[in-house]
Amino acid sequence: MADAETTNPTQQPPAEAPAAEGADAPKGPSKSELKKRAKEEEKARKAAEKAARQAELEAQKAAAEVDYATEFYGKLPLNQSQSRPRRTRVQIASLTPEMDGQTVLLRARVQTSRAQGSKMVFLNLRQRTDSIQALLTVAPGKVSKQMAKWAAGLQIESIVLAEGIVKKAPEIIKSASVGDVELHLTQLHLISGLETVLPFTVDDANRPEPPETEAEDVQFKRVLLDTRLNNRVVDLRTQTNHAVFRLQHGIGHLFREFLDGQGFTEIHSPKLQGAATESGASVFQVSYFKGKAFLAQSPQLAKQMAIAADFERVYEIGPVFRAEDSNTHRHMTEFIGLDLEMAIEEHYHEVMELLDGLFLHMFRGLRQKYSKEIDAVRKQFPADEFKWREGPEGTLKLSFREAVDLLVEDGVAREDLDDIDTANEKRLGRIVRAKYDTDYYIIDKFPMALRPFYTMPDPEDPTLSNSYDFFMRGEEILSGAQRVHDPKLLEEGMRAKGIDPASMSYYLDAFKLGCPPHGGGGIGLERVLMLFLKLNNIRRASLFPRDPKRLEP
Amino acid sequence: MADAETTNPTQQPPAEAPAAEGADAPKGPSKSELKKRAKEEEKARKAAEKAARQAELEAQKAAAEVDYATEFYGKLPLNQSQSRPRRTRVQIASLTPEMDGQTVLLRARVQTSRAQGSKMVFLNLRQRTDSIQALLTVAPGKVSKQMAKWAAGLQIESIVLAEGIVKKAPEIIKSASVGDVELHLTQLHLISGLETVLPFTVDDANRPEPPETEAEDVQFKRVLLDTRLNNRVVDLRTQTNHAVFRLQHGIGHLFREFLDGQGFTEIHSPKLQGAATESGASVFQVSYFKGKAFLAQSPQLAKQMAIAADFERVYEIGPVFRAEDSNTHRHMTEFIGLDLEMAIEEHYHEVMELLDGLFLHMFRGLRQKYSKEIDAVRKQFPADEFKWREGPEGTLKLSFREAVDLLVEDGVAREDLDDIDTANEKRLGRIVRAKYDTDYYIIDKFPMALRPFYTMPDPEDPTLSNSYDFFMRGEEILSGAQRVHDPKLLEEGMRAKGIDPASMSYYLDAFKLGCPPHGGGGIGLERVLMLFLKLNNIRRASLFPRDPKRLEP
């Protein structure tokens, strides 16, 4: 207001004073006139004094109003652990109508804040996937008008410490996840405010995605996702994302739970490698003191060496790095590999069957223990429920040849099927779903030409190999095989693929020192998560995704 | 031999032939002489025929001997999963005297092989930490001499498939871990042999280390360890190492078990970073397509961003990278970080106490569930049992000031104690052990000057900080603190440490978007393992260790 007066000094000229001065100027006042004036002045003085007294009283009253609530609201000092009253703070999810009348204390985000007149404020308070309606009502000696005004002005996404009385809601509050109670606030303090503009609201970020169509507007979608990823900290606050990353946690837990029960040992292999292994083209190079190193593109070599060291059964959960300039919905330059390797007694199908058991354990575990999270994700990403085969017939297993036949029957030219490309993989997924009613299946016996040098050839047909891929919704999520444990055959394989055996002498030595037959596989954690939930883009399954164009946040 | 004859043609001239030629040359033989010769030739021919027949018979007999056992031994063809008889193979650990008379099949390494005469061979067969004595005795129709000879010639560390009858041992066999039974072999086949010279035997590698002395010969020890690490696949086959890595598995399991029970979510943060964060000097640089990236030296920034995203409590197990040219017993360039971060309600001691509970859970769990492994390691690395305080007084907690006082009392000059260096840390460990009878303790309230920019200062004394280190046997195994969640204070901290806030804008933004008070810590997995077992060198606690001089195997 002060600024407005200064910048517009002539818009509202004083109307009375100049006219009075003009009228009085020529002649002096009479005595009676002076007396009258003195009287009026005295009157005005008294009136002013009265007004001043009144103002003072009102100010005192107003001051008294601020005072009575001043301790009940406002910004807290920066928490530097000044004190520790050890007062219990509750989770919104734990509040029930049975607690009616209890006073509770909780830390939460302000999801929304809405004033109703000057005496009432409705707040939606959020903790992760849970929210509750909180109500602030002006009441003498408790909640002041100033407190209500302050609360109504809280920026959304602020973090507050709220004290209130739990009340059974008169009717279910649909805007809150805990809808059968509300919180009648008695105190409200700001723990952490915002010092920047919110790029989008969490409500906006949590809205259902437009249904996927064949002719989807990829450009539009990409922009949306990029905005989310650029502001990932806000994006991750959605109910959907809290559910997604609880499910990611669940997959890791179920993976380890199953393998621990099967006698596996968890290992941690180095990501820094002395040589560019497997396929030099897609390996990141690192400056290593005065020399160089390379980032492991899988724990393949290390886990095989662990088998040569008699570890028998090992798994690893860790980052793998791929220097591939692929900008697709399913490629990242860094992702989490769920890898395992095990000694074989008789036949590599021992490994394939264990892997199948592992996937079934994960699928069942997710459905049983994480149904709330799956439902939360489905609200934003509607999808057919993921289907697999239970029952005596077991998981569908096709040979590569049978998979090709299915595609040929469906109209694909056989000469295009030396390999099955991504489009045909998806097509096969649709064929299999229609014919066998499953989103999960295994393809066995890949042509040797399509597999890495360490893959064991088929004993009867050397153009085939003892290798398999696992699929979810028509996309590969695991690749594995029996490995070559004979050093001579391994060297031949290396030479055939243009790799100098001398560059991998440590690896070769492991087999020269005696190694049992073995096999294994590698699973992409984010792919399993993306495909189980049908998130459509792998970046949504990674906390802070990395691709050729993204190294931040 | 052919080469030797060619290169020394004159050293052994034919001695007989020239003399005979010279003697016979002048005169021809008489008729009776010729007759006599013919008779003798006939006799010799018959004798030769007889000898040949005899030899043939013996050969037939010998051939018959080979035949009767030929299927019972020898090298198996390369296992390419030709067949799957689904015959159960047993674990040595499962064999008991109650199984006397049962025929079993097992895959194992040949630990030792020793012939007793030509009719008996003793083999020690090994599976990981277990071994058994196996006996091969020549018996008609069952075990041939050839089979015994072949078995006696098996190279140690070969992998065999052994069939035999379980027999109660007449007396406990001390050389085997399963000493109350032995295996009377009926079949023995080679699965995988050696194609190189064994650098050292597993028996040698498993011998007790010389006791540590104050004046230990470090040079000698380092050479030994290097030999092991250069041939890590053989070194890892020792009982000690199988136990060490089962214990490593156990620490990870106990870490997750405790935190899962405390409502934590496991996260996976990217190791590829767009900027050299925290302290630029010790970060590895990566070629990233046409630009560059850096390897994360901790998940610090990511886990804090997860807190700003309302994850509340997170942990991560993953590699961290340090480009420090430190060649000590306790530094590696890559190790496994056990990291956690959590929101604080009132005071950072909530975090410190949770971390203390975590360590006690790990210590108790290791002692309860892994006593066999701890004992196995102690055979090679004798050490006082790791001690911690149970009971009502709880874990020893000292302030940095109190720790300094203890050192000063012990004779260290106070002016040398602005920081506590490695030598004084160890000294403090000995003082604490003597005074408080514990190998595990916490130091709280470090000077602010010693901590990173994101550390929260003490509310009363800004030269101190809300930070702590945890120690085992006088070495730091965890560093942690309350973090600064206020963006302005954080920017000030960055500038004070010479970091441009613009280079970490994504990180700063997380706090500008509202973030609860929080704290956490990072644990070095290999350090905990090394110090719990007193392995004396961190490389022994890493499967394939990496240091400035080692990138292989």
TrEMBL record, chains A, B:
<feature type="region of interest" description="Disordered">
    <location>
        <begin position="1"/>
        <end position="52"/>
    </location>
</feature>
<keyword id="KW-0067">ATP-binding</keyword>
<feature type="compositionally biased region" description="Low complexity">
    <location>
        <begin position="1"/>
        <end position="10"/>
    </location>
</feature>
<protein>
    <recommendedName>
        <fullName>Aspartate--tRNA ligase, cytoplasmic</fullName>
        <ecNumber>6.1.1.12</ecNumber>
    </recommendedName>
</protein>
<dbReference type="GO" id="GO:0005524">
    <property type="term" value="F:ATP binding"/>
</dbReference>
<dbReference type="GO" id="GO:0005829">
    <property type="term" value="C:cytosol"/>
</dbReference>
<keyword id="KW-0436">Ligase</keyword>
<dbReference type="InterPro" id="IPR004365">
    <property type="entry name" value="NA-bd_OB_tRNA"/>
</dbReference>
<dbReference type="GO" id="GO:0017101">
    <property type="term" value="C:aminoacyl-tRNA synthetase multienzyme complex"/>
</dbReference>
<dbReference type="InterPro" id="IPR006195">
    <property type="entry name" value="aa-tRNA-synth_II"/>
</dbReference>
<dbReference type="InterPro" id="IPR002312">
    <property type="entry name" value="Asp/Asn-tRNA-synth_IIb"/>
</dbReference>
<dbReference type="Pfam" id="PF00152">
    <property type="entry name" value="tRNA-synt_2"/>
</dbReference>
<dbReference type="Pfam" id="PF01336">
    <property type="entry name" value="tRNA_anti-codon"/>
</dbReference>
<dbReference type="GO" id="GO:0004815">
    <property type="term" value="F:aspartate-tRNA ligase activity"/>
</dbReference>
<keyword id="KW-0547">Nucleotide-binding</keyword>
<dbReference type="GO" id="GO:0006422">
    <property type="term" value="P:aspartyl-tRNA aminoacylation"/>
</dbReference>
<feature type="compositionally biased region" description="Basic and acidic residues">
    <location>
        <begin position="30"/>
        <end position="52"/>
    </location>
</feature>
<dbReference type="InterPro" id="IPR045864">
    <property type="entry name" value="aa-tRNA-synth_II/BPL/LPL"/>
</dbReference>
<feature type="compositionally biased region" description="Low complexity">
    <location>
        <begin position="17"/>
        <end position="29"/>
    </location>
</feature>
<dbReference type="InterPro" id="IPR004523">
    <property type="entry name" value="Asp-tRNA_synthase_2"/>
</dbReference>
<keyword id="KW-0963">Cytoplasm</keyword>
<keyword id="KW-0648">Protein biosynthesis</keyword>
<dbReference type="GO" id="GO:0003723">
    <property type="term" value="F:RNA binding"/>
</dbReference>
<keyword id="KW-0030">Aminoacyl-tRNA synthetase</keyword>
<dbReference type="InterPro" id="IPR004364">
    <property type="entry name" value="Aa-tRNA-synt_II"/>
</dbReference>
<feature type="domain" description="Aminoacyl-transfer RNA synthetases class-II family profile">
    <location>
        <begin position="245"/>
        <end position="545"/>
    </location>
</feature>
<dbReference type="InterPro" id="IPR012340">
    <property type="entry name" value="NA-bd_OB-fold"/>
</dbReference>
<comment type="similarity">
    <text>Belongs to the class-II aminoacyl-tRNA synthetase family. Type 2 subfamily.</text>
</comment>
